[in-house]
């Protein structure tokens, strides 16, 4: 992986009226890694991601992408950079089939402005095949007939189909069964193997320790620290989430809180 992060955020702050949602947050994602973003409810995870995705503006701070400073004023700006977000509600239309969902709002038309169904079907099948999604019986079946894991696979495939470089997954295994969770985690691994960068937001530390390369902890709108998965434990991450000292308050580059017996 390159030393220059694909996404680098420095001193990002965001307020909603009198509520300070983010305070001087630092966050980065390297190329080809799975960066987990964890924290308790209200820690600022969703706000940070929505700033990256262009849903929210931010009050101060800098965002760099691929080593260059960028201004993200809306979702289209994020999409042009190659940033795609799969939100927890997946934003899929149950009454449409897999192909129609994959191309919703980006339909391919021929010279007579008719929908070019063969091209869309071919690209949909190729994308699903590249991600080793084999559980979907037909790309023409309605999304309403798919399981939770299959829906998540379609949402991820939709995100990566448009030359994305950074995929943000918001609680992708929430409310899924054991088999469906396994399916989604394997999909996350394949994204990283293909060179994409992934931000994984989850409350499930077991899932995070299975697929993440590094873990960033947010607490009360501040970054507590960045932890290498192979050099930390679930207990240390839980302690950072509940009682960690933000790095800039502590005055150190990274926080490694002591475990209190």
On the 0 to 100 scale, the average pLDDT is 90
Query: Which radius of gyration do the C-alpha atoms yield?
Result: 19 Å
Distance N terminus to C terminus?
37 Å
Instruction: Give the CATH superfamily of the domain at 7-90 and 164-250.
Output: P-loop containing nucleotide triphosphate hydrolases
Q: Helix- and strand-based class?
A: alpha/beta
> Helix share of residues?
25-40%
Give short descriptive properties of this protein:
alpha/beta; four-stranded antiparallel sheet; Rossmann fold; 261 residues; disordered C terminus
List strands and helices in order, with pairings.
Layout: E1 7-16, E2 19-29, E3 34-38, H1 45-53, E4 60-65, E5 68-70, H2 75-81, E6 83-86, H3 98-102, H4 117-130, H5 148-160, E7 166-170, H6 178-193, E8 197-201, H7 205-211, E9 214-219, E10 222-228, H8 234-243, H9 247-250
Parallel strand pairs: 3-8, 3-9, 6-7, 7-8
Antiparallel strand pairs: 1-2, 1-4, 4-5, 9-10
Question: How would you portray this structure in words?
Answer:
This protein has a domain at 7-90 and 164-250: P-loop containing nucleotide triphosphate hydrolases (Rossmann fold, 3-Layer(aba) Sandwich). Strand 1 (7-16) and strand 2 (19-29) form a beta hairpin. Helix 5 runs parallel beside helix 6. The radius of gyration is 19 Å and the shape is globular. Helix content is 33%, strand content 24%. The longest helix has 16 residues, at 178-193. It has 9 helices and 10 strands. It has helices spanning 45-53, 75-81, 98-102, 117-130, 148-160, 178-193, 205-211, 234-243, 247-250, and strands at residues 7-16, 19-29, 34-38, 60-65, 68-70, 83-86, 166-170, 197-201, 214-219, 222-228. The strands form 2 sheets. The protein has a 6-stranded mixed β-sheet with strand order 6-7-8-3-9-10, with helices on both faces.
